[in-house]
Design a protein that fits this description.
Elements lengths: L6 E4 L11 E5 L4 E6 L7 H9 L12 E3 L5 H4 L2 H6 L6 E4 L3 H26 L9 H8 L2 E4 L5 E2 L4 E7 L7 E8 L5 E6 L22 E7 L12 H20 L3 E5 L5 H13 L7 E4 L1 H16 L4 H11 L4 E3 L3 H8 L5 E5 L8 H9 L6 E5 L7 H6 L4 E4 L2 E4 L3 E5 L8 H10 L2 E7 L3 H17 L5 E3 L6 E3 L1
Parallel strand pairs: 3-4, 4-5, 5-6, 10-11, 11-20, 12-15, 12-16, 13-14, 13-15, 16-19, 20-21
Antiparallel strand pairs: 1-2, 1-22, 2-3, 7-8, 8-9, 9-10, 17-18
């Protein structure tokens, strides 16, 4: 096996965007897919057309292994489609992933069915779901859970190992090692999404450094963001919430909407509220996200599988059974709750308010100054969340023009991604020959390359940094 026979193809749009992660590692007789996520731009037609398109380099029936970094849908969302097309290889995932993946993929299949109906009605397209529940079940039957720091031999010359990523629960970095008959070794590293070691540690491990890699595929999600994470953020956020609760719930008798992601963010926020307000909070907390409820139902499985320790397991049990929390599944119940005139806290999906019940709640809450919207971290550009944060006088929700008068609060300690300075320090610490930046805004990445090259030069690090294009092929 020589250098030219080991290649990596960037077969997902994460090469140029922050979604649709997928990377194909090929040797002369073995094909490994690293992640296989959905493209998500919140444009139903665009998403459908892009997700139906596959890189011609991916041959589902010829794949020998699929290795997944974590359960976010932009990293796992297209897996059932592979098995619909005849893939029969194992899917290797970090310990504790299976039940989370099951909930997320079943939900994705339902959304695809609903979206196909919308495309038929609004765009007169002959749209069919990318996959169905049967495809999800087929996909799940191939899942193998693997512990961190436990090398797995895929064949006589190829092995891989999971390293802690610190992003969300059961998230991992991946190291693939390839050894030829002459004993020459090549290593491919893939960070997946990596988290901050300075912020909340609920239900996850600290990120650990990958060993030496010939080639590293590294995330750059926040490489353009100038705000740095600090342990002080946690204390500051607690003070913000104390003031917000006093002003909105107790003084103004209003409602507080906290838009959340169903996986990780919901569970972190609930845990933070329990730890700091369990004895003082008088009002009820409503979790208005059916997907978040389902994930919370199986969250203890992921905690126990990762052996996070009795304290984490005990904490989540208390949080999940907190008598101040009510889970809302039925849509009619959610609509009725919006009309109740009493102070309350609502945790509703989705985090950036691109869809989900947080959008419906915004219609009711934004026009009144007594209410508040509390954001937990970054909001993507041109989203409803970013418009509300920018305090524009009116926002458009569906066909309605809504006054944006509610109080705004932004918490900074709940990010699940490493910030810019943490990315710089991490890539300075790691040993590799070449770094390919993915999963980030393309313009921000161009500037980040210059920053990293300058930082590497200061510490006499000779590693090179590149930005791949879609379907770029590199050799290890």
């Amino acid at each position: 096996m020589n250098k030219k026979n080991i290649s990596v193809s960037f077969v997902g749009l994460s090469s140029t965007d922050v979604t649709n992660s997928a990377y194909l590692l090929q040797t002369d007789n073995f094909n490994i897919l690293l992640d296989y996520g959905l493209y998500q731009d919140n444009d139903i037609k665009k998403d459908y057309l892009i997700n139906r398109h596959d890189s011609k380099k991916i041959k589902p029936k010829k794949l020998n292994a699929v290795i997944i970094s974590h359960c976010n849908i932009d990293h796992i969302g297209k897996l059932p489609y592979l098995y619909k097309q005849g893939c029969k290889c194992n899917i290797y995932m970090p310990k504790g992933s299976y039940k989370l993946m099951q909930v997320l993929l079943e939900n994705s299949a339902k959304i695809m069915e609903s979206d196909a109906d919308k495309l038929k009605f609004h765009y007169k397209m002959n749209a069919k779901p990318l996959y169905n529940m049967e495809d999800v079940l087929t996909c799940l039957s191939y899942v193998k859970e693997v512990s961190y720091n436990c090398p797995i031999l895929l064949n006589d010359s190829i092995s891989f190992e999971f390293f802690k990523a610190g992003h969300i629960i059961s998230s991992a970095q991946i190291l693939v090692t390839i050894k030829d008959k002459q004993g020459m070794v090549k290593r491919l590293g893939y960070t997946g999404d990596i988290g901050s070691n300075n912020l909340h540690k609920y239900y996850r491990f600290d990120r650990e450094n990958l060993p030496y890699c010939d080639v590293l595929i590294g995330e750059s999600t926040y490489c353009g963001n100038t705000r740095n994470h600090s342990s002080k953020d946690i204390k500051n956020d607690l003070e913000k919430l104390k003031r917000l609760f006093e002003d909105t719930l107790n003084r103004d008798r209003g409602k507080i909407l906290i838009p959340v992601f169903s996986l990780d963010r919901l569970q972190k926020v609930l845990s933070f509220l329990y730890e700091n307000f369990a004895d003082t909070l008088k009002q009820r907390i409503y979790v208005d996200t059916p997907l978040g409820h389902k994930i919370s139902n199986v969250y203890d499985y992921a905690i126990w599988c990762n052996r996070l320790g009795y304290s984490d397991c005990n904490l989540w049990d208390k949080v999940y059974n907190w008598n101040k929390v009510t889970y809302i599944d039925d849509y009619k119940e959610s609509m009725a709750l919006q009309r109740i005139k009493e102070p309350m806290i609502i945790l509703a999906g989705s985090g950036m308010m691109t869809q989900g019940r947080s959008v419906e709640w915004a219609k009711w809450l934004l026009p009144q100054e007594k209410n508040a919207v509390c954001f937990c971290g970054y909001s993507g550009e041109n989203t409803l969340a970013s418009e509300i944060k920018d305090k524009v006088p009116f926002v458009k929700i569906g066909k309605s023009k809504i006054k944006n008068k509610a109080k705004i609060c932004v918490l900074n300690s709940f990010s699940s991604h490493a910030c810019k300075s943490e990315l710089i320090e991490y890539y300075k610490d790691l040993k590799f020959n070449k770094l390919y930046l993915v999963h980030g805004n393309i313009d921000s990445r161009r500037e980040f390359v210059k920053i990293l090259e300058d930082e590497f030069s200061k510490c006499d690090k000779t590693s090179k940094v590149y930005i791949p294009s879609y379907e770029t092929i590199i050799h290890i």
